[in-house]
Amino acid sequence: MKKILVSFALMFFAMTAVQAGKAGDTQFDKDIAAQMINASIQRFEIADDVSIEDAIDSMKLRANMLNFKMVADLPLSEQIKAMGKDARHMQILAFCDALIAKEMVEYNIIFAGFLPCRIAAVEDAEGKRWLVTTNMDMMLHAVELPEKLKPLAKQVRDSIYSIIDAGVNGDL
User: Fold this and answer.
1) Does residue 117 share a domain with residue 61?
2) How many CB atoms lie within 10 A of CB 148?
3) Which residues are 132's β-sheet partners?
4) Does residue 106 share a domain with residue 139?
5) Pair (33, 96) in one structural domain
6) How far apart are CA 138 and CA 41, in angstroms?
7) How far apart are CA 50 and CA 62, in angstroms?
């Protein structure tokens, strides 16, 4: 919890500096930005015995079981290859529960920036395969939610982490 609070303090400081026009191209500003980005993203390594294609299939199946709609599948590496360039695997999947999304955005428009929930399936330079997504806990703590929205927000968080877990382990 303390780590989350420190991350939020760093984000608030950096946003305040940018809004005040005081953020320059200094190492200090870059360090704050790097900490903000690292704290807001989570990376999960796909198990060695699970192919990236199997991980994606598993995530799609789990999302369907949880009634989370896959609203986008962006095979970026395929597009890059079609343009004549080499590319490691890079694919963005987007999932959403439209009714929960509606409730969250009606409460605070900031949540529109998190929609739909994205999970990237990527291969790094060493050939390791990863699932990358927003740190859902940080998102949930960024805004004080009314009691009626807390269980919905937790449901989204738990569903996205369940989808990722299925992908990491190749659970069908």
Assistant:
1) yes
2) 9
3) 43, 120
4) yes
5) no
6) 9
7) 15
Whether residues 58 and 126 share a domain: the answer is: yes
Taking the C-alpha atoms of residue 6 and residue 138, their distance in angstroms, rounded to an integer, is 11
Query: Is 142 found in the same domain as 62?
Result: yes
Distance CA 15, CA 23 (A): 9
Tell me how far apart the alpha carbons of residues 142 and 14 are, in angstroms, rounded to a whole number. 15
Tell me how many domains the chain contains: 2
Per-residue pLDDT of the chain (172 residues; tens, 9 = 90+): 344 444 444 444 444 444 444 555 556 677 787 887 777 889 999 999 999 999 999 999 999 999 999 999 999 999 999 999 999 999 999 999 999 999 999 998 988 888 889 999 999 999 999 999 988 887 677 678 899 999 999 999 999 999 999 999 998 7
Question: In this structure, are 74 and 87 located in the same domain?
Answer: yes
Nearest by Cα to 76 from 117, 113, 120, 132: 120
Structural domain for 32, as ranges: 1-41
- How much is the pTM? 0.79
Residues 19 and 57 in one domain: no
